[in-house]
Amino acid sequence: GISCDDEGHVTGIDLRDNNLVGQFPVYTRGDAIDFWGIPVPESHWYLTKYGLANLYELQTLDLAENTLTGAIEYRPLYNLRVLTYFDVSGNQLSGEVETLV
Known about the structure:
Layout: E1 2-4, E2 10-14, E3 21-23, E4 26-28, E5 49-51, E6 60-62, E7 67-71, E8 85-87, E9 92-94
Parallel strand pairs: 2-6, 3-7, 6-8, 7-9
Antiparallel strand pairs: 1-2, 4-5
């Protein structure tokens, strides 16, 4: 399930063994355009984040034992500064995630 604090911020996501299928849900948009219509360079990925990367108060994320695929893009995970538990084992993911906690 999803847990929230008193202010409505998402603090926990526990979807372990929940039959999830598809791409790992941390995304950045490479086709972002700023206010003036100028493309945002990839080096400014933090300006184009959405999905899990916007859950700044997320403390626990358990997506283990599903059928998630693709590469984990670790840079958006750096926004999750209070993350203390991260489990995506038992999926079909590639890539490395440095120690964030």
